[in-house]
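sorry for the late reply, my laptop died twice this morning and i had to redo everyting from scratch. anyway the thing you sent over, i finally got around to it. pasting the sequence first so we're on the same page, its 163 residues, then the predicted structure underneath. double check i copied it right bc i was rushing
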Amino acid sequence: MLCISLAITDSRPQAGDTPREMKICPRFFTAPETKSDLSSKTYDKAERARNSWCKIDPPLFKNFETAGHTLLHEMTHLDAVGRAAGFQPQGNPPSHGTDDVDGFGDDYVTAARGFLDAWVNSPDELAENALQPFQNAENLAAAATDMQLHKHTHTNRDLSTLI
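ok and here's the structure:
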C-alpha cells in the first residue's frame, strides 16, 4: 500500500449505515513523526538530556509531534466529532469536521503557522469564507498537545509560537 500521508480521514457526513473511518498507513507505526507519545520522554525540568520534553533544542514544533497528536488531528476531521462539538458545516461536501488549510504551503506546520499569522495580523485579507482557527485540524491538535505538555511540565512554553 503506497501512502502519501500517515493517516487520512473520510470527513463526509455518515450516509445510512456506512460509518466514516480513519485509515492509518503502515508507515504511521515507524515514522519519526509518530514514534513518540507523551510518555516517551520525561517531564523533569532539571534533566538536560534529550530524554526530557522540557529540554528540546531547538524548540521546533515538529520536535513535539506524537502519535496521539496525529490521531487527534485526523479524528477532528470526522463529521460526527465536529457535529458533537457544535461546529457549523463547511466545505464541499459540507462537513461539521475540521479541514486542513489551503494556500499556505504544502508543509502542514508551515501552513498552520501561516494561517494563524494571517488570522492574527491580517484577518481582513482572508477570504470571507476562510476557515476559522478552530476549524483547522492542526490548530486543534497543536492546542491539545500544548495543553498536555503544560499540564505535565508546568512551563510557560507556548507551542503556538513554534509552529
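The helical segments are 67-75, 79-85, 108-121, 137-153.
thats about all i looked at so far, will dig more tmrw
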